[in-house]
Design goal:
Helices cover 25% and strands 37% of the residues. It has 131 residues and is of the alpha+beta class. The protein has a single domain, classed as Gcn5-related N-acetyltransferase (GNAT) (Aminopeptidase). It has a 6-stranded mixed β-sheet with strand order 1-2-3-4-6-5, with helices on one face. The protein is globular and about 45 Å long.
Length: 131
C-alpha cells in the first residue's frame, strides 16, 4: 500500500499529534514524494476541528526543513481551487510561488529552496508558514 511505504528518502511523512485522554491521536499530516532527483510533490491534511490553528503551517515549515536537509530544490502541490486557507498558507510561506489554475486544481510550485534567502524565509519567517 503506497501511503504506508514511507522510507524517509523518497517518501517522507510527518504527523501532528495531540494527547487525548492519555492516548496520542494524529490530527494532521504532511508528506512529500520524490518526483525527480531534486523535486517532490507535497500534500497536507488536518482534521477539520483543528484547522485554522497553525497546524498546517507548522507541518509545512517542518516538511520544508526536511526537504532542505535532503537537498531538494523544488516542492509542488495540487490544491483544490476552493481551499482558500491552504492557498493562503502557500502564499505566506515566504518562498516564490508560481501557480497555474485549472478547473479541478491549483498547481503550486516552490522553486527557490536552493537559495540561501529562500531557505531562511521558508524555515524562519514569523509571518510566513510559521504564522
Amino acid at each position: 500500500m503506497f501511503l504506508l511505504e514511507v522510507d524517509f528518502t523518497n517518501h517522507v511523512v510527518l504527523v501532528a499529534t495531540l494527547n487525548k485522554n492519555g492516548a496520542r491521536a494524529i490530527i494532521g499530516g504532511a508528506r512529500y514524494v520524490m518526483t525527480q532527483p531534486d523535486q517532490a510533490e507535497m500534500a497536507f491534511t488536518v482534521v477539520d476541528q483543528y484547522q485554522g490553528q497553525g497546524i498546517g503551517a507548522a507541518l509545512m515549515r517542518h516538511l520544508i526543513g526536511v526537504a532542505l536537509g535532503s537537498g531538494l530544490i523544488m516542492l509542488s502541490a495540487e490544491v483544490l481551487p476552493d481551499n482558500g486557507p491552504m492557498l493562503k498558507l502557500f502564499e505566506r510561506c515566504g518562498l516564490p510561488l508560481s501557480t497555474r489554475r485549472e478547473a479541478e486544481a491549483v498547481h503550486a510550485d516552490r522553486s527557490s529552496l536552493s537559495t540561501r534567502s529562500g531557505r531562511r524565509r521558508a524555515v524562519h519567517d514569523p509571518h510566513g508558514a510559521n504564522g
